[in-house]
Design a protein that fits this description.
By secondary structure, the chain is an all-alpha fold. The protein has helices at residues 4-8, 11-30, 36-39, 51-62, 77-83, 118-126, 142-145, 153-162, 171-181, 183-188, 194-204, 216-226. Helix 4 packs across helix 12 (216-226). Bound molecules: heme C (HEC).
């Protein structure tokens, strides 16, 4: 048996045994990540973004909204009371890159969907201080002025598909999506129909208040309004913080 003192006084042996100990720790932590698809719990309702939401998300990233807003409700009582159920890993499963953020100059947005009307969002994004006088959020008036470019939507979806987001191109992939998400959602995830779906979504719900034009605001509000709305947390209300609500 090796005495502890002989390890501590022998630099070579100490280094080797330390590396072995760290190696075991590393393997235990890292190897499960290679099976990440199995380690993220499946949660009903979670789906990839529709084409219009996806464009909104891209604009959210372009404008740097993540520098002031997080999208992760942490599992603490105060967070739960303010924002709602803490975020689940599955909710950002299709986010590439994820928008968890690391700084909150403004509030967390992970559950902002359906909290306000479309009109409120449009007004707030054009001129935040017109609805929240003490706000320090910048004005984003160009979102309403800029026409929405969507010619490259199929390429954007294809790129995400490469990272593992189940957008479908072949009939077999589409069939798999129908099984996984149901017909209505699967149709939205079909890359071949992306433009049609995008235009239809913008027409069906007039996000920016001007049905005649398709603006970046349409996409941005469509995105904001779906954040945190995919999972029905009422069915989990027995949860950890339910007693505080
Ligand atoms: C300089 C920091 C900053 C940036 C950048 C920023 N915001 Fe904000 N945001 C805030 C602050 C502060 C508030 C709280 C006051 C208010 O409601 O205006 C806020 C509030 C919000 C709210 C309301 C949240 C709620 O629950 O009441 C939304 C939605 C929002 N921001 C969206 C955006 C979007 C979209 C962008 C990017 C286009 C953006 N913000 C960029 C600081 C910022």
């Amino acid at each position: 048996m090796i005495k502890h003192e002989s390890i501590e006084t022998n630099v070579g042996l100490l280094i080797i045994l330390s590396l072995v100990a760290m190696g075991i720790g590393g393997l235990v932590e890292i190897v499960p990540l290679f099976y990440i698809n199995d380690t993220i719990e499946k949660v009903e309702g979670v789906r990839p973004y529709t084409p219009l939401e996806l464009r909104g998300r891209d604009i959210y990233i372009r404008e740097g909204c993540y520098t002031c807003h997080s999208q992760m409700v942490r599992p603490f009582r105060d967070e739960d009371l303010r924002y709602g159920h803490y975020s689940l890993a599955a909710e950002s499963q299709y986010d590439h890159p994820f928008q968890w953020g690391s700084k909150r100059t403004g509030p967390d947005l992970a559950r902002v969907g359906k909290k306000y009307s479309n009109e409120w969002h449009v007004q707030h994004l054009i001129a935040p201080r017109s609805v929240v006088p003490e706000s320090i959020m910048p004005n984003y008036p160009w979102l309403l002025e800029n026409e929405l470019h969507y010619a490259d939507i199929t390429e954007r979806m294809r790129a995400l598909k490469k990272t593992g987001v189940p957008y479908a191109e072949s009939p077999a992939e589409h069939a798999a999506n129908v099984e996984k998400f149901g017909e209505a959602v699967a149709n939205q995830l079909n890359i071949n129909d992306a433009e049609k779906n995008l235009l239809r979504a913008a027409e069906a719900d007039n996000f920016d208040g001007n049905p005649a034009r398709l603006s970046e605001m349409d996409a941005m509000v469509a995105y904001l309004q779906m954040l945190g709305t995919l999972v029905d947390f009422n069915q989990y209300d027995e949860g950890y913080f339910a007693e505080f609500r």
